[in-house]
Amino acid sequence: MNIALGLLVELGYLGIKLLYAYIIHDTGVHISGFAPQSLFLFIGTFILMTVFFVAMLQFNIMAFDRQIIEGEFDLILTKPVSAQFLATLKYVETWMVIPNIVVGLGLVGYGWYESGIAFNIANIGLYLAYGVLGIVTMYCVFTLPLLLTFKLHNISALHSLIWAVWDFNNLPHRIFPSPIQIIGTVFLPIFLITNFSPLAVMGELSNVEMVWGGIAPILLFMMTCWGWKRAIRAYESGGG
Amino acid sequence: MSKYKWLLGMGLQKALAYRINYAVTIMAAVFPIALQWVLWQAIFNYTEADQLYGLSYSEMLSYVVLAALMAQALRTGFEYEMAEDIKSGGLNRFIVQPLSYFGFRLSVFIGTNLGYFVATLAVMAVALWVAVEYWTLSIELAHIALFVLSAIGAFFLQFMLFYLLSLTAFWLHEVWALFESVRVISLVLSGGVVPLSVFGESLEWWLSLLPFQYLIYFPLQTLTGVLSFEQIFFGLLLQFFWIGGLMLVISTIWRRGSRSYLALGG
Questions:
Q1: In Å, how far is A32's CA from the nearest CA of chain B?
Q2: Which of A18, A56, A70, B190 gives 20 to 30 Å between its CA and that of B210?
Q3: CA torsion through residues A62, A64, A69, A72, sign
Q4: Which of A15, A157, A171 comes nearest B21 by C-beta?
Q5: pLDDT digit string (tens) for chain A, length 240 residues
Q6: Distance from CA of B191 to the nearest CA of A (A)
Q7: Which of B39, B52, B189 should be substituted to probe chain A, the one whose Cβ sees the most A Cβ atoms within 10 Å?
Q8: How far is CA A124 from CA A43, A48, A119, A130, B147, in A?
């Protein structure tokens, strides 16, 4: 029953993402020079990234502040494994993401084929490489705000803000005005998560963007680990 | 009656204590609005159509802004508290106290959400002013008055829907997924993401048989003057029918659920 209802939740969110795909298909709109078929590649990639978000991050984020407030975090600190790893990647969800995997792969496949992108090792490698870097970026973008829990305890509103920003990835970032593109690529690199892998295989990434897409996730990950160590130092047990 | 007023006041105080939280939540609503804004702008520019899905450019932009705000105005959250009350024996105190649980929840809901609701309506008024001034959207005063009436109806309808949903906790152990799935489905079916006309005429007709469209789509159609006064009054009647109908269903399910309630705890 719980699995079925969990699937229903994801189907609901998936439905919203597909609404955008439906409107794009129905109106035949070209966005920033991309035909609807190419736009499906972006939407499909976003849906596939949602798989990693739901499977790896969502439930850990939801449980994180409770661990701190109720003192459960003390137990994590005693384990002979990285506390950051345990506290942020402990829960893994598998069943809920099945619809996203099926639909995401379908849309990516269709968009890839219809966009006339060669299906060769170089392109697949490029797509996967930026995909993995996107996952690293996603982990950091959602983990960094968690560190505020050590100070503020209740950061639910901040999370709803980040989750709302995450939905910007429903469409290619080039649809937004330049200042938003710069902010979302450089300062809060949310656009690196889902945009760079489709852009890379379409040959639409500039050299600067290609380099930034490789460096930024690594820098961000280092910053997250550094921030984690500092936050841990300030941690005060809330347990008995 | 005074005890319910007191509960209402308590709810209001609680809501005011979290006003920064609310401000951030309203800020979060800006992002889906921005996303839809750029999408519809691109679509209208590309197709050069006067109308899409029955709405002009200015009506579509007004709709997506107002719908996102309306969805915020109708936020809930009490369903988790109700589920906890049912599962962990929190209903026990209502057995011994001269207080109706429905009245308690309704008073707290009004108290907690009235501030959010009115504040969001105020933000909507600003958005409407922008729409009228800059997007040449024409709005009549009578439509605004009828919108307020339908928005109040939507507020109570939302309460009834989620109260009814919470009663599933009498039988279900885990309710999170059910609550979230209904929340998402309700958001789409109420027209909180896109106008229901996007789904096509036949599906829109089928959706009109459900209560969800009276949460967002109908109030906004009332406001933007898409409906005639006759259609608005008929719609308001149906909205009140749904509120009354759900109240009856709630009282029936409550009675059945109470029979399977285990008064856990001290």
A1: 9
A2: A18
A3: positive
A4: A157
A5: 777 877 888 888 888 889 989 999 999 989 888 999 999 999 999 999 999 988 888 888 888 877 777 777 888 888 888 888 888 888 887 788 889 999 999 999 999 999 999 999 999 999 999 999 999 999 999 888 888 877 776 676 777 777 788 888 888 888 888 898 999 999 989 999 999 999 999 999 999 999 999 999 999 999 999 998 888 887 776 654
A6: 11
A7: B39
A8: 17, 15, 7, 10, 53
| Chain B residues with CB-CB distance to A20 below 8 A | 39
Q: How far is CA A112 from the centre of its chain?
A: 21
B53 phi and psi angles, rounded to 5 deg: 55, 35
Question: Which residue among A12, A168, A176 sits closest to B184, beta carbon to beta carbon?
Answer: A12
Show me where the domains of chain B are located: 2-259
**Which tokens sit at B169?**
């906790």
Q: Calculate the alpha carbon distances from B261 to B83, B92, B102, B143, B196 in Å.
A: 12, 10, 16, 46, 39
3-state secondary structure A161-191: HHHHHHHHHHCCHHHCCHHHHHHHHHHCCCH
Please list every residue in chain A whose beta carbon sits closer than 8 Å to the beta carbon of residue B27: 161
Token reading at A133: 């870097």
ipTM of the complex model: 0.84
- Residues in A closer than 8 angstroms to B43, CB to CB, are 23, 27, 29
The values of phi and psi at residue B157, to 5°, are: -65, -40
